Please model this.
Amino acid sequence: MLRIAVQSKGRLYDETMLLLEEAGIKLNRGKRILLLSAKGFPVEVLFLRDDDIPQSVVNGVADIGIVGENEYVEKGQEAKLIKRLGFSKCRLSLAIPKDEDYQGVEWFAGKTIATSYPEILKAYLAEKGVKADLHVISGSVEIAPGIGLADAIFDIVSSGGTLVTNGGRVLGVTATADRLTAAITQAYAAAEKISFEKLHKRTDIGFRALKAIAEKE
Model:
């Protein structure tokens, strides 16, 4: 039995469930069920918070996981990225209050930046030679400048609408690649290899189906 960890809710959850469905892997999930066996296929699905998925793979709780690449990179776990699935795209970007005069990344020197992704941001600022103070918060990052908690933010951006609503503007600065859904894995038992290869083939079929649906829309 192959165990796959997926996000328990949100946009990535919805698209992952659609991927599995298109691949013919059927699940009937109740609201409080966190571990579920698929019908007619040797797979268990474990529903977790997205930031717990990389560690669950590394610790052997799950054989593989589907998670945003932002979490995969931020956690820095010893897991292997084996396939980018190409959905739930957005990016990690820096943003500042809309009235600020921004001339370049040097603007952030000595400033306080609120973020839920300190490790990714540290690496980016070090690459640019900029020293700033990081304020780590777990949610509602976009309101930090407006309430005086930080001068700027570094967060996931999709359309940028939430930032605009809260008086901010997204800069043309992206500190990492587009947030692509990533499948990650560590060494798994030889007995599970056949199941994994079958799953891989099925998810490829499901991904092609999803892509065809998206192109029609």
About this structure: The longest strand covers residues 91-97.
